[in-house]
């Protein structure tokens, strides 16, 4: 099954666009506000006692099971949320996204990351042009290039094979690829293809990150991939210049052509930097940075490490969810249900945070990636039409793999604040361990916790139960668990490249659903700009003070004092230094 979109509706008037009303003014929103009072009278202990309700709160698609029966919600709540989706024109908004309409209105761009994993014969248009052939043109080039590097027909300046890759990039040009790389590292198939190879990520402009990345690597066998949508991001460009210096220092200027390649939408700047445009891999402005892992941003470093065939499976997993998201009815649509439940928790029950708790060490970089996808997308103060929101959008995402998190912040989740939790479990471990004479195998031990924690949160433990256990009176309040703490569970069949793609797309679309309901633009990120421009002012001051001895001017008392102290304490830093690279 493939979806064929032949319509580009960017020029067609869509009735709901005429309305600038905020969703909070809709009848369904107001109805849900009233309904909160009913839900406050319930407890998950009672809700969980109704098997019919629980059965209705399970959805399966492509071997993924979502169980949301531990949400503080009844079937009535869920129906009201579907009504809210209707009032927010959710289905139309999803269609507009897939049709290539310029729904990122403040940047006047389509939002078409789904095209990055579409089948070769799919038709997905932006500005009436089918973008899928361009996508596959780059994928073919990536396949060819990564195979040449991997089979040793593309070698470094001294004729040695390039076994190690450093991918330089930050934010969306880093977090998604890092998540997928970390998840694939222990997958038996991917691991097999990565034998003898290393992939590292240089993101932070902190020189310590440079030191960590180059330590133990030989420039002769290293390929540097500069990943930047804009090719202007200060951190990435300084890191790229730093590693260019590292290569030139060891191998001379002509080595850059063999040891540095780029991924960007800005090919003129790639060339200006000194990278051969033939060694640059394009993507397009209709791919948001945080949604770019399925473009060359992720596909190049991951194909170099694992081979294109593995990465193609990852793309297929994401595509399966795209089709589901596009075509499944709302009541069976996993990203839609997840998005609506987040809206319920944030905007109605008033829980501002969400914990992402994968019971798989391979998913240790999933929460950091979703932090960007979710918080950069939905942390907005105005509606898509520019009106101040009378409610808070977005949520605070954080997480750690279980069981590590259990020995860290779960105390707060069990007895302190109410934080809706996403438990993500995997049926078949990537790396099973069985020990003779143990009660259960190691993965079963992990999964015992995955199955137990949601019930501990939902049911809690009452004072009466503790009294029956003859607990000393003075400890009863300390050992009481109120319960009624919502969670949902996602059970994946395994964690291969395909499943990783599925998981990624589920969360990407969930975030879009939330933004569509809140009526915000989930695809711009103006909030990151102010800090960047203030850093430019500081950078100029540091340069002027170091080179010309100029005094610190134009800052408030606090910043001026701090900057002056910093400059004074580092007065031994040379104003016109020779290149110095970390040596550890
Ligand atoms: O600072 C935020 C941001 O613009 C992100 O949205 C983006 O993923 C990141 O910077 C990196 O941008 P680029 O890929 O253009 O270097």
Structure description:
- It is a single chain.
- 45% of the residues are buried.
- The protein is globular and about 75 Å long.
- Helix 1 (27-40) packs antiparallel against helix 4 (75-87), helix 13 packs across helix 14 (308-327) and helix 16 packs parallel to helix 21 (497-518).
- Mean pLDDT is 95; it is low at 1-19.
- The protein has 23 helices and 13 strands.
- It is an alpha/beta fold and 584 residues long.
- A 6-stranded mixed β-sheet has the order 1-2-13-12-10-11, sandwiched between helices. Strands 6-5-7-8-9 form a 5-stranded parallel β-sheet, sandwiched between helices.
- The protein has helices at 27-40, 44-47, 51-56, 75-87, 90-98, 132-150, 175-184, 188-193, 207-214, 234-251, 256-259, 267-273, 296-306, 308-327, 334-348, 366-378, 410-415, 442-459, 463-468, 473-479, 497-518, 529-548, 557-569, and strands spanning 58-61, 64-67, 125-126, 129-130, 164-168, 198-202, 222-227, 260-264, 280-282, 353-358, 396-398, 421-426, 487-492.
- It starts with 26 loop residues before the first helix and ends in a 15-residue tail after the last helix.
- Helix content is 46%, strand content 10%.
- 6-O-phosphono-beta-D-fructofuranose is lined by residues 170-173, 228-230, 233, 236, 289-290, 376, 525, 528.
